[in-house]
Specification:
- With about 475 residues, the protein is of the alpha+beta class.
- It folds into three domains: about 35-225, no CATH class; about 230-320, no CATH class; about 355-470, Immunoglobulin-like (Sandwich).
- Helices cover about 40% and strands about 20% of the residues.
- It has helices spanning about 35-55, 85-105, 110-115, 115-135, 135-145, 150-175, 175-185, 190-210, 215-220, 225-230, 240-245, 265-270, 290-305, 315-320, 330-350; strands at about 60, 60-65, 65-70, 75, 80, 235-240, 310-315, 355-360, 365-370, 375-385, 390-395, 405, 410-415, 420-425, 435-445, 450-460, 460-465, 465-470.
- The strands form six sheets. Strands 8, 9, 10, 12 and 14 form a five-stranded antiparallel β-sheet that branches. Strands 13-11-15-16 form a four-stranded antiparallel β-sheet, with no helix packed on it.
- The two termini are about 65 Å apart.
């Protein structure tokens, strides 16, 4: 929203990124390189390296992570999940959600401040590049006032290049690193869909980190708005100790009247990347980046007071001085997470080397042959989960008078692929009772997979004066 000279002003600011007249309030935080910043720096670059290397590194001949949407195959650290693994994927997703609930209940918004890609790349890639090219906070504010010059144009060019790199890394999670390298060395016309996806992702990242920035956390991301549900009074937060800091007074006046430790320097405000005043209490816009802690601790060191006026604490601790993280919701979340992860591990360990699905043939449910025998077509779909090519032999397990006709037997399936073949089971009319007959099929490769599957073939059933097919 563009500010105009006659725009009415709100009585108070609605969002920290908006001025009272509704215009954009650009954040130019003053960087405070305290002990928390140094820890976050190491954490951030470890996460950046991990994000970059995951699609490149391989385990058991597979990428550490590959989300092959067209094939509907998802690989996580050497384990490939197929469309038939819906239950496993459900357990994994539920475990992630419960883990988020648990971490938030105990550690607050530690994800936002320490591990979220938005924060990590904004504060440890794009913002440092901005400072390197344009200068510090004062110089950036001058450029905001006078309009862009060559340095700001250079910054945008660098931002675009970094965004393109991140977009290609992101694309590697969906197409694989080897295929991505092939595409990058060829013409975009050979893979227009992937190129447009990469270009669109680059544009979105550039828009986010060059313009939208902290508004992603405040306006677009719903996580902050879930705080009222996910947090309680004993969850870890970044908080201001009003009991120690109030009443605020400039340091030069501290000896003139009783005052708290806060000297109202407002460095905690100028350091905040979302533009809030931590002294106003817990706020949705706070992403727990700890910049206010580092800024305040630096001031406390200079004036000879104890650190911790702004610190990691909880609402309950600020009120009664007691810290306790063990409470019912933490126990419940932990128990649910253990059950979910246990079920996931058990199901994953019991996953076989192949998946077999039996489907009825297309068209009529059965056919009566000239010699009176009844023929059923059956479609057999086999997914080979192993890392080598396998040949699967299809056999009838017992059954008097039954015969299996399989033109493609054994069925050869490449590693990680799925193949389907058609077979026919014939049986005499006497084998049927009420229009169906039970059969058992044995499918195996003689190496790492053998499975017996029960099936019911259909045939004639005497009903009234005629014959009808009976469903399963």
């Amino acid at each position: 929203m563009v500010a105009t000279s006659n725009a009415p002003e709100a009585e108070e600011r609605v969002l920290s990124t908006l001025n009272r007249d509704g215009s954009r309030r650009v954040m130019r935080p003053k960087l405070s390189k305290g002990h928390y910043y140094r820890r976050r720096f190491v954490t951030a670059w470890a996460l950046i390296a991990t994000f970059t290397l995951i699609p490149i590194l391989k385990l058991n001949g597979k990428p550490l992570m590959l989300l092959d949407v067209p094939k509907r195959e998802f690989t996580f650290f050497g384990a490939t999940f197929l469309p038939t693994d819906t239950f496993l994927l459900m357990l994994l997703l539920f475990s992630i959600f419960i883990g988020i609930f648990l971490i938030t209940a105990v550690l607050g918004r530690v994800w936002c401040g320490w591990a979220c890609p938005q924060t990590v790349y904004m504060e440890f890639v794009y913002r440092p590049l901005e400072i390197l090219i344009e200068g510090g906070r004062k110089r950036q504010l001058e450029l905001d006032a006078q309009g862009p010059d060559g340095r700001r144009i250079l910054k945008y060019a660098v931002f675009l290049a970094v965004s393109a790199f991140l977009a290609n890394t992101f694309l590697a999670y969906f197409v694989g690193w080897d295929r991505l390298l092939t595409w990058m060395s060829g013409s975009p016309a050979a893979h227009p869909g992937a190129f447009l996806l990469m270009a669109g992702t680059t544009a979105l990242m550039f828009f986010d980190f060059a313009y939208f920035r902290e508004q992603t956390c405040i306006v677009a991301c719903p996580y902050g708005r879930f705080q009222s549900v996910l947090l309680d009074r004993r969850s870890l937060i970044v908080g201001y100790d009003a009991g120690r800091g109030e009443p605020k007074a400039p340091w030069r006046k501290k000896e003139e009247r009783a005052a708290g430790d806060c000297i109202d320097c407002k460095l905690c405000v100028s350091a905040c990347p979302t533009g809030i005043d931590i002294r106003d209490g817990l706020q949705m816009e706070c992403i727990h980046c700890t910049q206010c802690i580092d800024a305040c601790d630096e001031v406390m060191d200079r004036i000879g007071l104890d650190r911790g006026l702004v610190r990691y604490t909880s609402q309950a601790e600020l009120a009664d001085g007691k810290r306790s993280f063990l409470r019912p919701r933490v126990v419940i979340y932990s128990a649910i997470l253990v059950v979910m992860l246990g079920a996931f591990a058990f199901s994953l360990a019991g996953k076989s080397a192949a998946d077999v699905t039996l489907l009825r043939g297309l068209g009529a449910p059965f056919t009566i042959l000239p010699d009176g025998r009844v023929s059923n077509q059956i479609r057999i779909k086999i997914a080979n989960r192993s890392e080598e090519e396998r040949s699967y032999l299809i056999e009838l397990a017992g059954g008097s008078g039954l015969e299996l006709i399989a033109p493609e037997n054994p069925l050869t399936v490449a590693p990680g692929e799925t193949e389907m073949t058609a077979a026919f089971i014939t049986a005499p009319p006497s084998a049927f009772s009420d229009g169906e007959a039970p059969v058992a099929l044995t499918i195996g490769n003689g190496i790492d997979f053998t499975k017996v599957l029960d099936y019911r073939i259909l045939g004639p059933a005497a009903r009234g004066n005629g014959f009808e097919g009976s469903g399963p």
